[in-house]
Design brief:
heterodimer, A: mainly alpha, two-stranded antiparallel ribbon, 14 helices, globular, B: alpha/beta, Rossmann fold, six-stranded mixed sheet
Chain lengths: 324, 508
C-alpha cells in the first residue's frame, strides 16, 4: 500500500480558497482603479453605502447558491422580493403589526412561494427554469394586487433595518453576514448540505444510493424563497416602502453574483462565502461606475463584460485543475 | 510485413507517470492485442497514438514519417482512428446522419436524404448490419447496435490504423462475429489494428501479436500463438490468478429474500426465486434477457406490474416501491453503470462512500467529520482502494478502484441483501480478485448476494447457484455441480426459441 499523501485534500482546499483569493484580488484592483479615477470613491461613505446596499441581494444570493448547487435555477426571486415586501407592508400599515412579525410574514410568504416552486418542479419533473419563470409572473402579479398597484409608503417603522447601527453598518448587513456564515456551515457540515451537493452532481446516483432527492429539492427551493422574502424586507427598508416594482430584474443580478462566486450552473459545486464575494464585486463595480460618472448604458455594458470575464476565468481555472 | 507505426520511449506524466519508456511497433495488416490491468497504461498509450493525449516523452513514426498528431482530427486526417469505449453518437439523429455527420451530402445547404441513406446503407452492409434501417434514430437502437454504428462511423473514409477499445463489451455474439469478419477484411486491406479487450479468448481468436503493459511499462510483446491465456494473465498481474473452479459450495443459511412473480411488461415475466443468507446466487442470461431489469424491480428503481419481495422469514411482502425503501429494508444495489448511476464522479472517495448511510456519521443532521474520515479510511484500506487519499475525486481512479468505492458504500451501509449488476465489468484482474474476496467475506458474514454477470466463467467460479434468465423469464436455477457452460447457455437461449416459434405461429 502506498503511503497516503493528502495531495487532493490540499488541492481542493486551495481551489476553494483560490476562488475567494481571486475575487479579493479583483476587489482590490477595482477599488484601486476607482480610487485613482475619482477622489470621492475611497471614502468611508462609499463603503458604508455599498455595505448597506448589499444585504438584499446577498441573502437572496445565498438561497440561489443552494438552488444552483442542486442544478436548479430560481428566476422568481425578484418577484418574490416584491411580494414579500408587500406582505410585510400590508401587515405593518393595515394590521399595524410591529416589524419583527411582519418580517416573519414576509419570509413565510417567500417560503410558501418557494415550496410551490419546488413541489411543482419535483412532482411533475419539470425544469425549474420553466416553473420559476411562471412564478416570476405570478408573484409579480400578486405583488401588484397586494399593493393595489401603488407604492405603499411604510416609513420609519421599517427603515432602521437599513440604517447604520455599528461602525456605519446596518442591522440588515449583520443579518446577511450571519446568514452567509450559517449557510456555508449548512452546506459543508450537515447531512442536508451533503445531499444537496450529491443531488447536483448526480441525482440518479443519489436515488439509487437510497437518498430520496425530492424532499431535499423542495426544501432548497423553499429556503431560496424564504431568503428572497427576507431580501424583500431589506429592499423595503432601503426604500422605506413596499413597491410592487421592487426587485424587478433582481434575479439576474443575483444569479450573476452567484456565478461570479464560482458556483457552477451545472450543479454540484459552489460556495456561499464565494457568493458573498461575488455580490461584493458587483456592488463595488456599480458604486464605482456611478462614482466616476459612467452613464447607465456604459454601466450595464461594463457590468455584463465583468460577469462574462469572471465566469471565463473560473471555468479556465476549473479545467486546469481537472487536467492536473 | 512492413512497419506501419513505430513508437520509441513513449511516456506520459500527469502528477505521477502513467506511462514510461514504451517502445512498440504495429505492422500493416496485423491485429495487435493491447492488454494489461486497468491503469496499466493501455488507454493512455492508445490515446497518444490517436492524438487525444500528447506524450510527455518519446517519438512516433507513421509509415516512416515522423508522426506527431496534434489532435484527434489531425490523427484522423492521417488515417489513424480510434473507437472509444464511450459512445459518441448523437442519439436524436438518424443512423445515417451519425455515420456521415462530418460529410453530410447536401445541395445548397439542404441535406440530400436519398444519397445520405444510400451511402449509409452501404457502410452498414460492410459490417454486416444491412438489416438496420439507416433512417432510424440512434436512440431507437440497442446499445450493441449503437456500438456497431460507432465502429462503422470510424470506417467511413481513409483509415490505415484503427484502435478498438473494448469494442465487444456490449455486443452479442452474432455482432461480434460480424465485427471480426470486418476486422479480417481490414487486415487484408493492410490496415493495422490495435485491439484492446479484457476478453482473452477473443484476443486469442483475433490477434496476431499480443502486447502486455503493467504499471505503465511495456512487459512483453509476442506472437499470440506462443502464449496461453494464463501466460498472458501472468504477465499482466505478475503472479498467478486462482480460478477457483473447484471451490466448495458455501453453507447456505435461512432464506434472506424471496421474490415472487416479479413482472414488468415483456421485460421481466413472472420471475420467482429464493435467496439464502450466506450464498452467492448468480443471474445469467443474454444481454437484454431482463437480468438488470429484475434487479431494478427488486430494488424499487423501476415500477413493477406485479410481484413482491419477502424479506427474512416474514410472510408479508415488504413495501419496496423506491430505492429509499429498499435501502431502508437492508437491500443494496451495485449498478451496472457505475459512472452514470453509481458514483458522484467529481466528488471524493469520502463523500461517495458514506452516501447511502449518513446517519451513522452524523448527529442531529450534523456530520461528524472525524468519524467519517476514520470510517472511510478503514474501508479504503480494507478494500485496498488504490488512491492518494480519501479526498481524491473518484473520477481520477481506475475502473477497478471506482468499483471498490461502490462496494465500500454498501459495506458502510451494512445491508443484508446485496444486488450486484456486472460488478467486475471494466475491472482489471487484480481488483477483480479483491472484489471476489470481498464477496466471499460478505457471504461468510451471512449476507445474501445476487450477482448478474455476462461472463459465465466468472459466475461458475464465484456462485453457489446460478439462475438463468431468458427472454424475461427465469427459466432454471442450477446448483453448483449441476451446471456446465453448455447447459447454462442452452437455458439462456431456451425462452427465445419458444417466443420466436410462438411469434411465427401467430404470424401463420
Amino acid at each position: 500500500m502506498k503511503n497516503p499523501k493528502p495531495i487532493s485534500l490540499q488541492a481542493s482546499v486551495t481551489s476553494a480558497l483560490g476562488t475567494v483569493v481571486g475575487l479579493l484580488v479583483a476587489l482590490v484592483l477595482m477599488v484601486a482603479l476607482f480610487s485613482s479615477l475619482s477622489q470621492y470613491f475611497f471614502t468611508g461613505d462609499t463603503f458604508v453605502t455599498i455595505a448597506n446596499d448589499i444585504p438584499a441581494v446577498a441573502v437572496t444570493a445565498v438561497g440561489m447558491t443552494f438552488v444552483l448547487i442542486i442544478a436548479g435555477i430560481d428566476l422568481s426571486v425578484g418577484s418574490v422580493m416584491a411580494l414579500s415586501a408587500a406582505a410585510a407592508g400590508i401587515a405593518m400599515l393595515q394590521w399595524h403589526w410591529p416589524l419583527l412579525p411582519a418580517m416573519g410574514l414576509a419570509m413565510l410568504t417567500g417560503l410558501i412561494v418557494g415550496a410551490i416552486n419546488g413541489t411543482v418542479t419535483v412532482a411533475w419533473r419539470l425544469p425549474s427554469f420553466i416553473v420559476t419563470l411562471g412564478m416570476l409572473e405570478v408573484a409579480r402579479g400578486a405583488a401588484y394586487i397586494a399593493t393595489d398597484s401603488r407604492t405603499q409608503y411604510i416609513g420609519s417603522k421599517i427603515d432602521w433595518l437599513g440604517k447604520p447601527m455599528l461602525a456605519g453598518l446596518s442591522p440588515a448587513f449583520f443579518i446577511a453576514l450571519a446568514i452567509v456564515v450559517l449557510a456555508q456551515i449548512v452546506l459543508t457540515r450537515t447531512v442536508f448540505g451533503r445531499c444537496m451537493i450529491g443531488i447536483g452532481t448526480n441525482e440518479e446516483a443519489m436515488r439509487l444510493a437510497g437518498v430520496d432527492p425530492r424532499p431535499i429539492k423542495i426544501a432548497v427551493f423553499a429556503i431560496a424563497g424564504l431568503l428572497a422574502g427576507l431580501g424583500g424586507v431589506f429592499l423595503a427598508s432601503r426604500l422605506e416602502a413596499a413597491d410592487p416594482n421592487a426587485g424587478s430584474g433582481a434575479e439576474l443580478v443575483v444569479i450573476a453574483s452567484v456565478v461570479i462566486g464560482g458556483t457552477s450552473l451545472m450543479g454540484g459545486r459552489g460556495s456561499v462565502v464565494s457568493t458573498f464575494f461575488g455580490v461584493l464585486v458587483i456592488s463595488v463595480l456599480e458604486a464605482g461606475l456611478a462614482q466616476i460618472g459612467a452613464s447607465e448604458p456604459t454601466k450595464r455594458i461594463i457590468t455584463g463584460c465583468v460577469i462574462i470575464i469572471a465566469v471565463v476565468l473560473d471555468t479556465l481555472r476549473e479545467r486546469r485543475k481537472k487536467r492536473v | 510485413m512492413n512497419v506501419l507505426l513505430k513508437g520509441t520511449g513513449l511516456g506520459k506524466r500527469y502528477a505521477t507517470p502513467v506511462l514510461a519508456d514504451v517502445d512498440f511497433e504495429l505492422r500493416a495488416g496485423e491485429v495487435l492485442a493491447l492488454t494489461g490491468e486497468n491503469g496499466a497504461g493501455k488507454s493512455t498509450l492508445s490515446k497518444i497514438v490517436a492524438g487525444l493525449v500528447e506524450p510527455s516523452d518519446g517519438a512516433m513514426w507513421l509509415a516512416g514519417q515522423p508522426y506527431q498528431p496534434s489532435s484527434r482530427k489531425h490523427a484522423e486526417r492521417l488515417g489513424v482512428r480510434m473507437v472509444l469505449q464511450e459512445l459518441s453518437l448523437v442519439a436524436s439523429l438518424s443512423v445515417a446522419e451519425n455515420l456521415l455527420l462530418d460529410r453530410l451530402p447536401s445541395r445548397a445547404g439542404f441535406i440530400r436524404h436519398d444519397v445520405l441513406n444510400r451511402e449509409a446503407a452501404l457502410q452498414m452492409a460492410m459490417i454486416g448490419l444491412q438489416d438496420i434501417d439507416p433512417r432510424l434514430p440512434v436512440s431507437a437502437l440497442g446499445v450493441g447496435h449503437q456500438q456497431m454504428v460507432e465502429i462503422a462511423r470510424s470506417l467511413v473514409g481513409e483509415c490505415s490504423l484503427l484502435i478498438l477499445d473494448e469494442p465487444t463489451a456490449t455486443l452479442t455474439s452474432r455482432e461480434i462475429d460480424h465485427l471480426f469478419e470486418q476486422i479480417a477484411r481490414l487486415k487484408a486491406r493492410g490496415v493495422g489494428i490495435v485491439y484492446i479487450s479484457h476478453r482473452l479468448d477473443e484476443l486469442q481468436q483475433i490477434a496476431d501479436r499480443v502486447m502486455v503493459l503493467r504499471d505503465g511499462r511495456h512487459i512483453d510483446t509476442r506472437p499470440m500463438r506462443e502464449l496461453t491465456q494464463s501466460d498472458i494473465v501472468q504477465r499482466m498481474v505478475g503472479h498467478d490468478v486462482h480460478e477457483g473452479l473447484d471451490r466448495e459450495r458455501r453453507p447456505a443459511g435461512a432464506v434472506a429474500m424471496k421474490v415472487r412473480g416479479m413482472s414488468r411488461g415483456t421485460v421481466v415475466r413472472d420471475a420467482s426465486f429464493s435467496l439464502h443468507a450466506g450464498e452467492v446466487l448468480g443471474l445469467a442470461g443474454l444481454v437484454g434477457s431482463g437480468r438488470t431489469e429484475l434487479l431494478r424491480l427488486i430494488y424499487g428503481a423501476d415500477r413493477k406490474d406485479s410481484g413482491d419481495v419477502l424479506l427474512g422469514d416474514s410472510t408479508t411482502p415488504a413495501k419496496i416501491a423506491t430505492p429509499v425503501q429498499a435501502v431502508r429494508a437492508g437491500i443494496g444495489l451495485v449498478t451496472e453503470d457505475r459512472k452514470s448511476q453509481g458514483l458522484l464522479l467529481p466528488l471524493s472517495i469520502r463523500i461517495n462512500t458514506t452516501l447511502a448511510q449518513l446517519k451513522t456519521i452524523a448527529r442531529g443532521g450534523w456530520l461528524k467529520r472525524t468519524d467519517e474520515r476514520r470510517e472511510v479510511e478503514r474501508l479504503r484500506q480494507l478494500l485496498r482502494v488504490r488512491s492518494d487519499s480519501i479526498e481524491q475525486p473518484v473520477n481520477q481512479l481506475s475502473g477497478g478502484n471506482q468499483q471498490k468505492v461502490v462496494f465500500a458504500r454498501w459495506l458502510h451501509r451494512d445491508c443484508d441483501v446485496l444486488l450486484l449488476d456486472e460488478p467486475t465489468r471494466g475491472v482489471d484482474i487484480g481488483a477483480r480478485a479483491d472484489i471476489y474476496a470481498q464477496m466471499d467475506r460478505l457471504a461468510a458474514a451471512g449476507k445474501a448476494l445476487l450477482m448478474v454477470s455476462s461472463d459465465l466463467r466468472e459466475l461458475m467460479s464465484v456462485c453457489d447457484r446460478i439462475a438463468v434468465m431468458s427472454a424475461g423469464r427465469l427459466v432454471r436455477i442450477f446448483e453448483r455441480g449441476e451446471w456446465t457452460q453448455q447447459l447454462l447457455l442452452e437455458a439462456a437461449f431456451s425462452a427465445y426459441v419458444a417466443t420466436e416459434s410462438a411469434d411465427r405461429a401467430m404470424a401463420a
